[in-house]
Design a protein that fits this description.
3 domains, Immunoglobulin-like, Coagulation Factor XIII, Chain A, domain 1, 6-stranded antiparallel sheet, 40% helix, 748 residues, alpha+beta
Length: 748
């Protein structure tokens, strides 16, 4: 039996191939819309607010210096929002303030942020799939976007048919590349005016190519002009389509020697476009003195102070490449890095092949084919140029290139089949479309859904056994049952894990934030800076307190990475609590223990911060060999003027926090100077000393003002709660009274 290639396979379903692609696209877009929480895509919140504004009969947004609900999107032309407003107006959206409650800890544009918070809104998991109120309104508006995505796929196919030939298998594969682009599906499943400008651009691209095949008729020119006008009242970047469009008309006029007709064509097209979309720019000029409305956008969406350097531009284009294919959420949910590398090579192969086709075609006999592909190339380049202009003002995303999606997919298909001729090129294109479809199907389950998955809830009897119970209550509504901290010791740059178990005691009408702070040397102090902290809604944003049923327990682990430059050794103080993000000053809710006593600082535990390498005894120190009980040795000291340095060594981790005493006594044995205190002023207490630690403990002795004579410097350790001194063994046996004599001083 003869082998069947991709072309033959697609020819067998010739009449059904496009239908199959469209059905697959609509299925995938519906899946993305269902899996992704509502409005969790770039700027979707403000696009929806624009729709609501129109649906409530408030007319077009008018910026007067005060921020509007749709923020910078108030500057956008209105067509997309006018299409969705009738559907939204059918729904009662009184619940919008609760459904669209913002997450103040959202990690926008931070895919590597270690504490989740991918979500811009505080969603209640049980209500995400509701079909009423605001959620229903969003779903209805999304239908418009999905249908517009289907229009883009359809006209991408029609344009590819002009390029590859009607019914060509390559035209179907080109449409499949568009339909199975995960980012395009994601955008089509969200509320965004890019969906309409992309669809209109695909239609105009198709008409632009047809003008190169056959001289444009007045009716088609009129229709194209209307489409350009509709693009103009959809999004500003859509206007760049006129460059390749006018070029195609110029080429058509040149080929047919119809130079007078060219002027007529431009006139018909321009008048139709101006009558359809010009009114919006006149309105903007009358209201703001700026026909584009960019002044309004940049009043809310502040532009860059300086254009980026070429190095920064190249760096920004890395984000463009990735987000052209698969960066979900608010630019913060990414796929595996190797997938981007594969896609980069995939695009590079296509571009190299296309250049190898286009350059020889410039001098070939098939001028029509060259002009078609040259305009296709120019279509993509003009969109890239428009993006470069935008980069001079703001930060780019791959979706801004979607008006060139139909052209780009055709360019890649042509490049692959040029570089890999015959059956090999078609198989490569076929398998590429198949792989892209697989990624599109895989992404919502493996990347999007886990990013917004709420953590499991427990009964109080199910909390981990290693938890140190606290039972602190906040505002009679939230209880911190306990905390577990591990490992006991970390080094700079390593992660300290803090597990906290929270219980909601009664229904809440607002969401509170959780904080976990780690302090280094100096401990918790007003106005001080933490080493590292996490501030979040429960579930790293995915399960706000308001959504937790009373009685249920949420246990979650906060992995806090200690800065590489943190001072060590040190005691790491872990502080945790609850606060209202919107309360002025954010003082935090007061914590009360089981006995009703106020907990002032919220300290839940400690850990040790070790240096990368423990030091050796410095040469200026006088070696000693005194072994205290509980695994502590005094191995040396130095005294320079009034600065005393003690060098302690931990043979094993001590079980308690001990206090150091340094006494200076006169010839009569009377205390004349000295001090008592924790080692390193409390910054590294003995219970945190790991085995092998060498701790330098610096003290100052007040020698000034002492009368001349002989003095003795003694040192030891004791347990503060019982005042019991630790036993000491020296080179000559037990040391009386647990006080080691360091030195005799003679003061003149």
């Amino acid at each position: 039996m003869a082998a069947i290639g991709p072309r033959e396979f697609l020819v067998k379903v010739k009449g059904k191939g496009l239908t199959a692609i469209l059905v697959a696209f609509i299925f995938l877009a519906t899946l993305y819309a269902w899996v992704n929480p509502i409005l969790e895509s770039p700027d979707a919140i403000w696009h929806f607010e624009y729709i609501v504004h129109l649906a409530q009969g408030k007319g077009f947004p008018h910026y007067t210096g005060k921020s509007l609900p749709m923020r910078q999107e108030a500057s956008q032309p209105p067509l997309y929002y006018l299409l969705a407003a009738p559907l939204v107006s059918l729904v009662n959206i009184e619940d919008k303030p609760k459904v669209m409650e913002p997450n103040p800890h959202a990690a926008i544009g931070l895919p590597l942020y270690p504490y989740g918070n991918k979500n811009m809104l505080a969603h209640c998991p049980g209500k995400r799939f509701s079909l009423s109120g605001t959620i229903l309104a969003v779903r209805l508006a999304t239908i418009i976007s999905v249908l517009l995505g289907a229009v883009t796929v359809y006209f991408s196919y029609q344009a590819a048919c002009v390029l590859f030939g009607k019914g060509s298998s390559l035209a179907l594969l080109s449409a499949a590349i568009v339909a199975f682009n995960p980012q395009f599906i994601f955008l089509s499943a969200s509320i965004n005016n890019d969906n309409l400008v992309t669809a209109l651009a695909a239609i105009i691209f198709y008409f632009t190519l047809t003008f190169l095949r056959q001289a444009p008729a007045p009716k088609r020119l009129l229709l194209t002009g209307v489409l350009v006008g509709l693009t103009a009242i959809t999004k500003l970047n859509g206007l760049v389509v006129v460059v390749p469009l006018f070029l195609s008309l110029a080429i058509a006029a040149f080929k047919g020697r119809r130079f007078s007709d060219f002027v007529q064509w431009i006139f018909i097209l321009s008048v139709a476009a101006l009558l359809t979309g010009g009114w919006w720019y006149v309105r903007n000029f009358l209201l703001y003195g700026d026909p584009t409305g960019l002044k309004v956008m940049f009043a809310e969406y502040h532009p860059r102070e300086h254009p980026p350097s070429w190095q920064e531009t190249l760096y920004l284009f890395e984000g463009v490449r990735k987000s052209f294919w698969a960066v979900f959420g608010w630019f913060n949910v990414t796929v595996h890095p190797w997938i981007y590398s594969v896609l980069d090579w995939w695009m590079a192969i296509g571009l190299v092949g296309f250049v190898l086709f286009l350059v020889p075609a410039m001098w070939g006999k098939k001028g029509e084919k060259f002009s078609l592909w040259f305009v296709t190339f120019l279509w993509a380049v003009t969109q890239l140029f428009a993006l470069w202009l935008w980069i001079q003002k703001r930060y780019p995303q791959g979706r801004m290139l979607f008006p060139a999606l139909a052209a780009s997919s055709a360019i890649w298909v042509k490049g692959w089949t040029t570089l890999l001729p015959g059956r090999l090129g078609k198989w490569f294109t076929f398998l590429s479309a198949l792989a892209l479809g697989a990624l599109a199907l895989y992404s919502p389950w493996s990347y999007i859904r886990p990013a917004y998955a709420p953590p499991p809830l427990l009964e109080e009897s199910e909390i981990p056994a290693g938890l140190s119970r606290l039972n602190w209550t906040y505002a009679d509504s939230i209880k911190l049952l306990g905390v577990e901290i591990w490992p006991q010791s970390v080094k700079p740059g390593q992660v300290l894990n803090v597990r906290a178990c929270w219980q909601v005691l009664k229904p809440l009408d607002k969401n509170y934030s959780i904080f976990v702070h780690i302090w280094g040397r100096g401990g918790v102090r007003p106005g001080g800076e933490t080493l590292v902290q996490v501030d979040t809604f429960p579930g790293f944003g995915n399960l706000p307190f308001r959504c937790i049923p009373p009685g249920k327990v949420l246990c979650e682990v906060y992995p806090l990475r200690i800065p590489p430059d943190a001072e060590a050794p040190a005691k790491l103080t872990v502080e945790a609590g609850v606060y209202d993000f919107y309360e002025p000053g954010r003082p935090g809710l007061k914590a009360v223990d089981e006995n009703g006593h106020y907990i002032p600082l919220g300290i839940v535990g400690y850990a040790a911060l070790e240096p990368f390498e423990w030091p050796s005894l410095p040469p200026e120190a006088l070696p000693l060999n005194y072994r205290f009980s509980d695994g502590i040795k005094l191995i040396g000291f130095s005294l320079e003027r009034d600065v005393l340095k003690l060098y302690w060594f931990a043979e094993r981790r001590p079980t308690r926090d001990y206090t150091v005493f340094v006494h200076l006594v006169n010839e009569k044995g009377e205390w004349v100077a000295g001090f008592d205190g924790m080692p390193m002023g409390g910054d590294f207490p003995t219970s945190l000393w790991p085995e092998g630690a060498l701790v330098e403990d610096e003290r100052k002795i007040a020698l000034a003002g002492l009368p001349p004579g002989e003095y003795t410097l003694k040192v030891g350790l004791y347990f503060l709660e019982t005042m019991e001194r630790l036993r000491v063994e020296g080179p000559n046996g037990p040391v009386p009274e647990g006080a080691v004599t360091l030195k005799r001083l003679y003061l003149p």
